[in-house]
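agent> fetching stored inputs for the LLP docking request
agent> found them:
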Amino acid sequence: MSVFVMKDGVLHAEDVALSAVAARFGTPCYVYSLKALRDAYAAYRDALAGRDALVCYAVKANSNLAVLNVFARFGAGFDIVSGGELARVLKAGGDAGKIVFSGVGKTRDEMRAALAAGIHCFNLESAAELERLNEVAGALGKRAPIAFRVNPDVDPKTHPYISTGLKTSKFGVPYAEALPLYRRARSLPHVEICGIGCHIGSQLLDPAPAAEAAGKLLALVDALAAEGIALKHIDIGGGMGITYRDEQAPAAADYLAPTLKVLAGRKEHLLLEPGRSLVGNAGLLLTRVEFLKHGEEKNFAVVDAAMNDLARPALYDAWHDIRPVAPHDGAACIYDVVGPVCESGDFLGHGRELDLREGDLLAVMSAGAYGMAMSSNYNTRPRAAEVMIDGAQMHLVRRREALEDLFDTETALS
Ligand code: LLP
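agent> prediction call returned; pasting tokens
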């Protein structure tokens, strides 16, 4: 059941009218529902009931401190990809011992910070990274917990930009190189082999590729065990898709079922790294119509949010539902909903049937994941505010950026 519903002719987030959010905090504004976050997390928790499993929320999807704090309170772990994300998780009250650190380019400083914090595991993505981590940990007199992110060469059948487990991808280590890498790791004094992982892609709707990848990981786990290298955990990554338009997105239990079947009876601890499926449909981007431009060929609704606020349409041609907050009952027109940024690619939606007036509020749906997290200041546009709704309460969880915030880090030549 969606938490974004029409009541008395106005779209609400839980018990709060979105018009009230706009009146109080202005637009553009990201709006999140605490209940939706709770429900999405509960779906994973229930699907994993009775298993030794840890959900490590992929911070990159939405790294607002309030969002991280919500998941930390639920007992979640975190999947991070930078020192910045590490600092965010710690600041939000996350448990360092439940952090996995992914990413192809970890710097020495980032490794040191993660070792000092005492994270659960480094997901290594190359032989060179193994050598560097061994050296950095040695200098600190520590042993770094490691897993290799193995590339199972499974086709996740999703957008090519977000397919990450193919042979051609920059991510992970090739399947055939995994055994030699673990042998090398065993010989190094400052790393401790803990597990194995993969992440095959994002916005996956078919559960079969994930199960196939898990099976390939298990074959490696068994081959390593035969050599006396025992792994404590298997990390199956994230990737479960959500409904943006008319996709049949699976429930967490249905998505995970085939993978859990493959893993049945295994003693290894299970880690998961979901991002989008925990936050995507828990958020929307609230924006206001500035102008309507009716042309011979096309009609444009120019709104106050743009590609710098929500890059997914421009970047991936991604489709987000666009709903009027207070619909009129007149005749609809076909609009391209566009932002004020000076790029033809600056659109939030093409060809939408809407009945609009200047000043109307629109909700760009399913924007909780990779929305604010990928926003920028392009065209010197201060970034949007973020508001968390909890029942009838609104919490400002990130104030709107001021122009001064942007200028603060810059200096003119003297
Ligand atoms: N683990 C790793 C190592 C990842 O690289 C990712 C996402 C995840 C977990 C979380 O995947 P999810 O459950 O969210 O699918 N900006 C793109 C998505 C990029 C995903 C990158 N990696 C978008 O807006 O669709």
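agent> quick read of the result: Residues 242 and 277 are 6 Å apart (CA to CA).
agent> awaiting further instructions
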